[in-house]
């Protein structure tokens, strides 16, 4: 008994006709009959009930048909999975990442991926979240890794990693009893428009009824490293 025999069986069960099944599968009716007999012999049961006008499954045939379809479908899934793996043996992968994933999270994982698939050429573009999402939508990038979601009907998001946004200050700044209201009194360095970090932070503050116009923004910078350097100086 092999997969092809099960495929013939399920097609005959669907059509309830030897002639139609033979035509669709480009086989002769005797060939189909032989395959069905071999299945019946293998399982020791009668699979079809035949009359002068009708052909239909027996109770045993219905059971086999249910499992045969699952086996055929599972085999199809295995083939698809194998094809996906084979497809990773060579080619090019064009990725985009916003600054936090691109600079702190993604590189180590890409090294691991490249060791596993050395024939894959990887190119990585780092930009702000809005630009990366735009290029994914324009199909300029195969995949984007960003720090926040921008809803769009053509996008699907999957969680890749977790991160935490923190407030940093110079060492001489007293932050022991610092609260959110104190933010309004302090000069603040903020990420640029289009940044996922900026979007996430402003959304979190808005939940506490603190908005961009409430803050004393003295400078907007294009990366987290730039903000860290500015705070240190």
List the helices and strands and how they pair.
Elements: H1 3-15, H2 18-25, H3 29-43, E1 48-50, E2 55-57, H4 59-87, E3 91-97, H5 99-116, E4 120-126, H6 129-137, E5 143-145, E6 187-191, H7 196-206, E7 216-221, H8 224-232
Parallel strand pairs: 3-4, 3-5, 6-7
Antiparallel strand pairs: 1-2
Instruction: State the CATH superfamily name of the largest domain.
Output: Winged helix-like DNA-binding domain superfamily/Winged helix DNA-binding domain
The residue ranges in which pLDDT falls below 50 over 5 or more consecutive positions are none
Largest sheet: number of strands, sense, barrel closure:
3 strands, parallel
CATH architecture of the largest domain: Orthogonal Bundle
- Please report the first level of CATH classification, the CATH class of the largest domain: Mainly Alpha
Q: Care to count the β-strands?
A: 7
Shape: elongated
Order of helices and strands: HHHEEHEHEHEEHEH
- Average pLDDT, to the nearest integer? 88
Q: Give the amount of beta strand, in percent.
A: 5-15%
Strand order of the largest sheet: 4-3-5
Helical percentage:
40-55%
Radius of gyration: 31 Å
First and last CA, distance: 76 Å
The number of helical elements comes to 8
CATH fold category name of the largest domain: Arc Repressor Mutant, subunit A
Q: How many domain modules?
A: 3
């Amino acid at each position: 008994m092999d997969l092809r025999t099960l495929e013939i069986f399920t097609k005959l069960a669907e059509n309830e006709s030897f002639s139609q099944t033979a035509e669709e599968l480009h086989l002769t009716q005797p060939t189909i009959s032989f395959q069905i007999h071999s299945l019946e012999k293998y399982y020791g049961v009668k699979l079809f009930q035949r009359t002068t006008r009708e052909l239909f499954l027996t109770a045993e045939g219905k059971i086999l048909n249910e499992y045969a379809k699952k086996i055929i479908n599972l085999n199809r899934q295995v083939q698809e999975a194998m094809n996906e793996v084979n497809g990773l043996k060579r080619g090019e992968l064009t990725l985009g990442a916003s600054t936090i994933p691109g600079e702190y999270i993604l590189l180590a994982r890409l090294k691991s991926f490249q060791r596993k698939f050395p024939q894959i050429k990887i190119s990585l573009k780092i930009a702000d979240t809005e630009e990366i999402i735009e290029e994914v939508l324009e199909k300029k990038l195969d995949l984007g890794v960003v720090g926040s979601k921008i809803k769009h009907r053509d996008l699907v998001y999957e969680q890749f990693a977790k991160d935490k946004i923190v407030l940093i200050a110079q060492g001489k700044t007293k932050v022991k009893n610092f609260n959110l209201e104190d933010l309004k009194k302090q000069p603040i360095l903020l990420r640029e428009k289009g940044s996922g970090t900026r979007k996430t932070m402003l959304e979190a503050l808005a939940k506490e009824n603190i908005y961009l116009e409430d803050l004393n923004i003295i400078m907007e910078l294009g990366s987290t490293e730039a903000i860290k350097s500015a705070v240190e100086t």
